[in-house]
Amino acid sequence: MISVLIPTYNYAHFLDETIQSVLNQSFTDFELIVVDNHSTDNTTEVVEKYLTDPRVSYYRNETNLGLVGNWNMCLRYPKAEYIKFICADDKIHPEMLDKFYAVMELYPNVSLITCDKQLFDGQPWVVELPLKHLQQGKKVIFDTMTSKSWIGEPTSVMFRKSNLSLGTFRNDYTLHVDWEMWNRQLTVGDCYIIPEALAYIRAHASQHTRAVSSKACFEEYYMAKLMYDYQGFDNAEDKVQIRRIVREKAAQCAKKAMYKQIPKITNKKSRETFFKALSITAREGVFLKGLGLLWNGFQTKTKKRLLKTAMLIPVTMVSTIIQSEDIPVSVISLFVK
Q1: Residue 268: which domain range?
Q2: 161 neighbors 79 (Cβ within 8 angstroms)
């Protein structure tokens, strides 16, 4: 059996689609648990009409526990061996549970399953993951920590209930709370990636601010530091690679949370962010590395702006400009480097 968990807060307008995508599964041996984080909309009304199905249950928190608190509340209720989260605004392919269950049964060493995803309710596109099929857990951890968090959000993932012996979602993370959880779980088993878009992720219009960028780089640095204590990451080669990742994440803190805060240093929040990043930068000795990342980013942005401007200039004018002696070498080098 699979325990399907839907944590929700004020998403009544999406819940019907989400619940129906579970009830329409070709795999029927599941329990569906909706955990309402003290919503103020008509969530209860939406869910109640599904409670005639004995597989569906509904719990409402007495107070709002926050996103991570509600995710962990969900983990109190599963009875099944396999746990499948679905965000309250997402949907899943009709054969997702069937295919995920088959993999778990076939590969007892698999700790976690994920898949490609289809974005919807906006500009639609399929996100294909960089690895496919059965992969060592350690390999996936190193790959994501040196690239990006491609394992995916909870809607894309299913894991074994036994993994919870490693702990639940950490309250001290906010942006990468799921990624940190997946890393922990992959220390005790393999990862299986199904190269099909079985998760449907709703694309919300959002804007990533510098504040979010700063918080993300701090969390990634702390995640990298955790790798030193991971089970099975204790040989010399692992330690060298972890050290390299830690320094790279620290350099990102220098770039995004220290150097970029200097123009706003008089602001209290920016000053706190600056000194937090300064401490990490000094500890890991990556002042120059962080500055190099900042400079490379500046060059890339400058190139794009100049190229965009150049496209607006008539060809005859471009020829005249090139033949002139007024172009600084530093500007030309931005195009030819």
Answers
A1: 210-290
A2: no
- CA angle, 100 then 191 then 213, to 5°: 105
Any domain includes 311: no
- Give the span between the Cα atoms of 45 and 51, in whole angstroms: 11
CB atoms inside a 10 Å sphere around CB 195? 12
Whether 56 and 151 share a structural domain: yes
- Neighbouring residues of 262: CB distance < 8 A, sequence distance ≥ 6: 274
Helix (H, G, I), strand (E, B) or coil at 302: helix
Same domain, 14 and 95: yes
Helix residue ranges per DSSP H, the chain: 12-23, 43-48, 66-74, 96-106, 137-145, 177-185, 210-226, 236-253, 268-284, 287-310, 315-323, 329-336
Q: Does one domain contain both 100 and 226?
A: no
pLDDT mean across residues, the chain: 87
User: In the block, which residue shows the tokens 């004018």?
Assistant: 317
CA distances from 231 to 146, 235, 238 (A): 19, 11, 11
Looking at the fold, whether 37 and 78 belong to one and the same domain comes out as yes
Q: Are residues 128 and 273 in the same domain?
A: no
Same domain, 198 and 242: no
pLDDT band, residue 213 (cuts 50/70/90): confident
| Residue 336: φ, ψ to 5° | -105, -5
Question: The pTM is what?
Answer: 0.84
Token duo for residue 160: 């074994």
State the total domains in the chain.
2
Whether residue 55 is contained in a domain is answered as yes
The helix/strand/coil state of 190 is strand
